[in-house]
Specification:
Layout lengths: L1 H22 L9 H19 L3 H10 L11 H25 L6 H18 L8 H11 L8 H26 L16 H24 L7 H10 L4 H26 L5 H18 L4 H17 L8 H26 L2 H14 L2
Helix pairs in contact: 2-3, 2-7, 2-11, 3-7, 4-5, 4-6, 4-7, 5-6, 5-8, 6-9, 8-9, 8-13, 9-10, 9-13, 10-12, 10-13, 11-12
Organism: Magnetospirillum sulfuroxidans
Keywords: Membrane, Transmembrane, Transmembrane helix
Pfam family, one: FUSC_2
Length: about 350
């Protein structure tokens, strides 16, 4: 009886801890102009695409607009160098993803290569959150884009223009905001080591590839959200962070899918869809630093619309929502397993030893 009481006390304590992590709201010093500029970076290409009657082109450029979110709070010169580098990386990742679409057997190896390389570079140059997440998202969406071979240069040009537009918006935003607040000092580059620059990126890349391979084995249609969900979970700074992020992502995505179903059931045209995505982007960038699960509620419909908006109305929203829920559960589970391995001292010792031998 005493043991049962102790177990019950532990279970209730565990649930209480998880609930506190789920409802904790973090402080934020982010000015409202930043989410507004981010919404412009992702929304203006959609409005231009709607004006010319080619929303599908606007969606590709809007994906490049996500580069704006990599802007650090440093001096103007450092901001622009960082953003231009990220713009190149986003374009390159999307290009490789689109090219892998024509050779499906290469889709998983290409995504593993991109995940490893972008994670290495983000860690080497001290790129903060969202880290390699949007690079993987661009590659994944590109890999499942219904593109013909002769359209590849057009698609690459569109995402390049979207990324450059984001850099231009970031420049004018920075000129304005740096007159109101001082820039933060440029952080020192992290000290490179085998564990952080080689071991971690390789493990992360392998598990991202495993998540996509499982999606292909299960014959999931347009499973671009599986590797994105996996990476979002596995890149937590600690096992506690990985677990918390998995809970936040599953709960937020579940609610977000209900919101997505409601939004996709509305009679949206290209103009209303563009405005809606701008509103979602503004809410996300306002909320993400305060509460990740709450932001995920709005990230889910935005991501679905970025990848599916051009084909909306050609099928049932319920089928699409069910597919994305399955993608999230699968990707988050693989990400959790990868996070456990990544933060296991035994795994790091055994696998790291073998990797060092290969590197000799």
């Amino acid at each position: 009886m005493i043991r049962a009481d102790k177990r019950w006390t532990k279970v209730m304590g565990f649930l209480g801890t998880e609930l506190r992590h789920l409802v904790t709201i973090n402080p934020s010093d982010r000015p409202w102009q930043m989410p507004f500029a981010a919404a412009l970076a992702t929304g203006l290409p959609l409005l231009v695409g709607s004006w010319f009657g080619h929303l599908e082109y606007g969606l590709v450029s809007s994906l490049g607009g996500l580069v704006f979110l990599y802007m650090p709070a440093t001096a103007l010169s450092h901001r622009m160098v960082m953003l231009m580098a990220c713009a190149f990386a986003m374009t390159a990742c999307y290009t490789l993803g689109v090219m892998s679409h024509f050779v499906p057997v290469l889709m998983m190896p290409v995504l593993v290569f991109i995940a490893i390389l972008t994670t290495m570079l983000c860690r080497f140059y001290g790129v903060g959150m969202p880290g390699s997440l949007f690079f993987i998202m661009a590659a994944s969406i590109g890999a499942y884009a219904p593109t013909e071979v002769l359209q590849v240069p057009l698609m690459v040009g569109l995402i390049s223009m979207g990324a450059l537009l984001a850099c231009l918006i970031a420049f004018f935003y920075s000129v304005y905001i740096l007159r109101r607040q001082d820039p933060k000092p440029v952080p020192a580059l992290p000290q490179p080591s085998f564990e952080t620059m080689v071991f971690d990126p390789v493990v992360i890349g392998v598990f991202v590839g495993i998540s996509l391979a499982l999606a292909q084995v299960l014959d999931l249609e347009k499973a671009y959200w599986v590797p994105v969900s996996c990476l979002a979970v596995i890149q937590g700074a600690s096992l506690r962070a990985v677990w918390t992020k998995q809970i936040h992502r599953v709960v937020g995505t579940g609610i977000g899918l209900l919101l997505s179903w409601g939004l996709l059931s509305l009679p949206l045209n290209s103009w209303s869809l563009s405005v809606l995505m701008m509103v979602l982007a503004f809410i996300i960038e306002t909320a993400v630093v305060r509460h990740y699960a709450f932001a995920t509620i709005f990230i889910t419909p935005l991501a679905i619309m970025l990848a599916e908006a051009a084909t909306l109305g050609h099928g049932s929203p319920s089928v699409l929502i069910h597919a994305r829920l399955l993608d999230t559960v699968l990707g988050s589970f693989v990400g959790l397993v990868g996070g456990i391995c990544l933060h296991s001292s035994w795994f790091r010792d055994v696998v790291g030893r073998q990797m060092r031998r290969l590197g000799r």
